[in-house]
Amino acid sequence: MPTTTLPVRTAERSWAPDERTPASARAAVRRLLRAWGVDEETISDAVLLMSEVVTNAVVHAGSTIDTVVRLSAGHLRVEVTDGDPRPPVRCHPARTEENYRGIALVEAYAHDWGTDPAPSGTGKTVWWCQHVDA
């Protein structure tokens, strides 16, 4: 029986560093992954992580934010690039504090994650990967 290779799907978008951007990015990734037929659990996790990482970019970088969402067989990779070269820092907030949990959530929900220098040479790319049920 011949093996079928699923195509790699990629979507890219740039965002302004605006307080509305995290909500817009969440909605965009939800629509995109649903259109691609991704399972709802993976979508929920991707939406949460997109929100956290894009929020960090808005708050700390104040530059244009570029996102890339790539789906291949069993694998989702999301990249968020901003103009701040400083890597994200994992904080240890008090139980009653609502902020500073973004990277801890990425660590908890992503299969793998990391930070690379931005392709342009200015800034950084925070990326994460998730397994996708076929």
Number of strands: 5
| Discrete helix count | 3
Topology as a string of helices (H) and strands (E): EHHEEHEE
Let me know the largest β-sheet.
5 strands, antiparallel
Helix residue percentage: 25-40%
Low-pLDDT parts are none
Give the C-alpha Rg. Answer: 15 Å
In percent terms, what proportion of residues is strand?
Answer: 25-35%
**Structural class, judged by helices and strands?**
alpha+beta
Measure the end-to-end span: 19 Å
Shape field: globular
Strand order of the largest sheet: 1-2-3-5-4
Q: pLDDT average, as an integer?
A: 88
Question: What features would you highlight for this structure?
Answer:
134 residues, 28% strand
Characterization of the model:
By secondary structure, the chain is an alpha+beta fold. The protein has helices spanning about 20-35, 40-60, 100-110, and strands at about 10-15, 65-70, 75-80, 110-115, 125-130. Strand 4 and strand 5 form a beta hairpin. The model has no long low-confidence stretch (mean pLDDT about 90).
